[in-house]
């Protein structure tokens, strides 16, 4: 095990899929798809990292390699000093996995039964199991749900249940694949709050994929962006905004229809009756802008919209792609 | 054994899950028994018109039927839901099994473990009981010993077919019907004497998919009947070896299938 804290290590990790496609009655075309193309990064113990990118970018493939589900086609990969694909079951004791879209809980049984199974399957010592269960149940507010069959739980309750199930064996790292997808605002807040505490109190390393920029903003000090199987960005979230030159949107409602508002540092991108949309750099403060507009225009109401992750990323590669057209991710073989 | 333990734990969870719908469980169990029961009734009805089927009396056919039924019943009860693998690959839920600290084969073998399958096993046992009560066998120690050996080996051979079929579903995810043709189809075939089938078919289930070793060959010894395909007498004692070989091959196929899944994904 690495002493310097490099808990997850990827060095030139690749994953190439053979995809067969029917092109005729019996003719098949074989194509190689590079789902993950030579990715290298390390995650230190106790870090909380957001792993983002558009659909099909290679996020899930990376998570599957880190958990030992998939064998890499090339490169070196270690989690807690273990090669996941070779020592899958040994690694399983040290990691927790939550797949946002697929529950691991037992559908027809009370929630507590799924935890009892984990207790025995992971051979968790009794005292530790009781302590962990108590803590998770308390923090995730599951007390009243333990005797409820899982099929009767709401999506948010089930997600909390799934997170607890992944943590009973004290994993050193927790992988979360879209943990807040489809959840309401309150459930999202509960999940985020819990993850923050888990990371702060227990030092659990957390790696999460998400489409929700707020997940990253509220949880992760570090974000990695992947697209076409390549790591496009690795650093703090603020840097991502700069790299993507992302813009926030100020929506203002004026008293009446007026020509586009003119203020320095922002430009009007859309006008619809008395409502106008202004784009301004995400790194700039909205306060002076608002003050200025309020002073010069009959302002009724306003709101600020954060850039969504897709837009930030799309903008990021708009530049990268223009420079490197040749870097195609797919190569026809025959 | 880590695998057996995981199997027990998961099978236990499925039993509790089915008990959440107790009435449904009772109905399907009874239905299962009734369906297989009627299956034998059709054979008995056939014998109201003829005295022998392929030279075998009703009791002798019942003997073959019972042996095949019990062997298959054990395998079906134990790992009969393995044909769900294809579905798990398609909807991605196989991945949730791969992150648990237990062998995937054991977890999958226990998948949807259903006690209602006891219905089939019970019916096979009843028919076998009927056969033993009515058929005339000159029992010797060798024949007595061969009985349990035959049942266990037969169950092993059927298990191997289930596992091999599941392994094939890593490649062809919608092949569960093909697997059923071999498992459920195979057991139906074995319920009749080999003498009623074409030689090619008998050859196929002897040398290619060795189902003949479940009951046809050993039963020929117990009943004192001529061996199918004129095989020598010692073949009646080979079922354990055949079962071990089949299980080894199925295990290899399983490993190859799982390896290919882990290198290609779904």
Describe this structure in words.
The complex is a heterodimer of chains A (334) and B (266). By secondary structure, chain A is an alpha/beta fold. Among the domains of chain A are: 6-94 and 171-242, P-loop containing nucleotide triphosphate hydrolases (Rossmann fold), CATH 3.40.50.300; 247-306. Chain A is 32% helix and 31% strand. In chain A, a hairpin with a 2-residue loop joins β11 and β12 (275-281). Chain A starts with 5 loop residues before the first strand and ends with a strand. With 266 residues, chain B is mainly alpha-helical. Chain B has one domain (2-264). Helices cover 71% and strands 0% of the residues of chain B. Chain B contains twelve helices and no strands. Classes of the chains: A alpha/beta (334), B mainly alpha (266). The interface between A and B is medium-sized, with 31 and 25 residues.
Percent range for β-strand residues of chain A: 25-35%
Give the number of helices of chain B: 12
For the biggest sheet of chain B, the summary is: none
N/C terminus separation of chain A = 43 Å
Task: Provide the CATH topology of the domain at 6-94 and 171-242 in chain A.
Answer: Rossmann fold
The computed structural class of chain B is mainly alpha
Q: What is the mean pLDDT of chain A?
A: 87
Largest sheet strand order of chain A = 5-6-7-3-8-9
Helix content of chain A: 25-40%
Helix content of chain B: over 70%
Name the biggest interface. A-B, 31 and 25 residues
């Amino acid at each position: 095990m690495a002493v310097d804290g490099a808990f997850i290590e990827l060095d030139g990790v690749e994953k190439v899929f053979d995809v067969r496609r029917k092109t005729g009655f019996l003719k098949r075309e074989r194509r190689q798809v590079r789902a993950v193309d030579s990715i290298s990064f390390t995650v230190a113990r106790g870090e909380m990292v957001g792993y983002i990118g558009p659909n099909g970018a290679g996020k899930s493939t990376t998570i599957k390699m880190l958990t030992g589900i998939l064998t890499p086609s090339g490169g070196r990969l270690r989690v807690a000093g273990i090669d996941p694909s070779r020592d899958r079951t040994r690694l399983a004791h040290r990691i927790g996995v939550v797949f946002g879209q697929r529950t691991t809980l037992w559908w027809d049984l009370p929630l507590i039964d799924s935890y009892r199974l984990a207790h025995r399957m992971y051979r968790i010592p009794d005292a530790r199991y009781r302590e962990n269960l108590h803590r998770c149940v308390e923090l995730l507010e599951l007390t009243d749900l333990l005797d409820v069959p899982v099929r009767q739980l709401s999506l948010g309750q089930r997600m909390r249940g799934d997170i607890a199930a992944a943590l009973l064996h004290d994993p050193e790292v927790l992988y979360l694949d879209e943990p807040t997808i489809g959840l309401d605002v309150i459930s999202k807040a509960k999940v985020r709050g819990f993850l923050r505490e888990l990371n702060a109190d227990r030092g659990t390393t957390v790696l999460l994929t998400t489409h929700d920029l707020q997940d990253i903003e509220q949880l992760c000090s570090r974000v990695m962006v992947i697209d076409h199987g390549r790591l496009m960005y690795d650093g703090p979230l603020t840097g991502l905004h700069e790299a993507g030159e992302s813009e926030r949107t100020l929506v203002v409602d004026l008293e009446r229809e007026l020509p586009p508002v003119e203020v320095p540092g922002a430009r009007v991108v859309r006008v619809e009756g008395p409502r106008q949309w202004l784009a301004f750099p995400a790194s700039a403060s909205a306060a002076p802008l608002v003050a200025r507009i309020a002073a010069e225009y009959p302002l009724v109401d306003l709101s600020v919209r954060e850039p969504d992750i897709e837009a930030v990323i799309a903008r990021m590669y708009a530049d990268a792609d223009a420079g490197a057209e040749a870097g195609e991710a797919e190569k026809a073989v025959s | 054994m880590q695998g057996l333990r995981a199997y027990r734990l998961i099978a236990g969870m499925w039993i509790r899950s089915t008990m959440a719908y107790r009435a449904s469980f009772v109905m399907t169990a009874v239905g299962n028994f009734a369906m297989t029961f009627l299956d034998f009734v059709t054979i008995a009805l056939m014998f109201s018109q003829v005295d022998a089927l392929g030279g075998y009396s009703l009791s002798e056919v019942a003997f073959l039927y019972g042996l095949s039924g019990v062997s298959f019943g054990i395998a079906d009860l134990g790992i009969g839901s393995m044909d769900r693998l294809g579905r798990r690959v398609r909807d991605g839920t196989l991945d949730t099994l791969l992150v648990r600290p237990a062998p995937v084969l054991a977890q999958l073998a226990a998948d949807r473990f259903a006690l209602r399958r006891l219905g089939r096993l019970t019916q096979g046992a009843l028919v076998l009981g009927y056969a033993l009560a009515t058929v005339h066998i000159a029992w010797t120690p060798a024949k007595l010993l061969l009985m349990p050996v035959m049942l266990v080996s037969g169950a092993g051979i059927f298990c191997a077919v289930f596992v091999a079929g599941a392994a094939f579903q890593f490649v062809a995810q919608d092949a569960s019907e093909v697997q059923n043709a071999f498992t459920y189809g195979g057991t139906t075939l074995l319920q009749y004497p080999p003498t009623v089938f074409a030689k090619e078919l008998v050859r196929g289930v002897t040398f290619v998919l060795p189902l003949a070793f479940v009951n046809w060959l050993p039963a020929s010894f117990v009943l004192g009947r001529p061996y199918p395909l004129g095989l020598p007498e010692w073949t009646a004692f080979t079922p354990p070896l055949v079962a071990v070989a089949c299980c080894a091959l199925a295990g290899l196929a399983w490993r190859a299938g799982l390896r290919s899944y882990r290198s290609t994904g779904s």
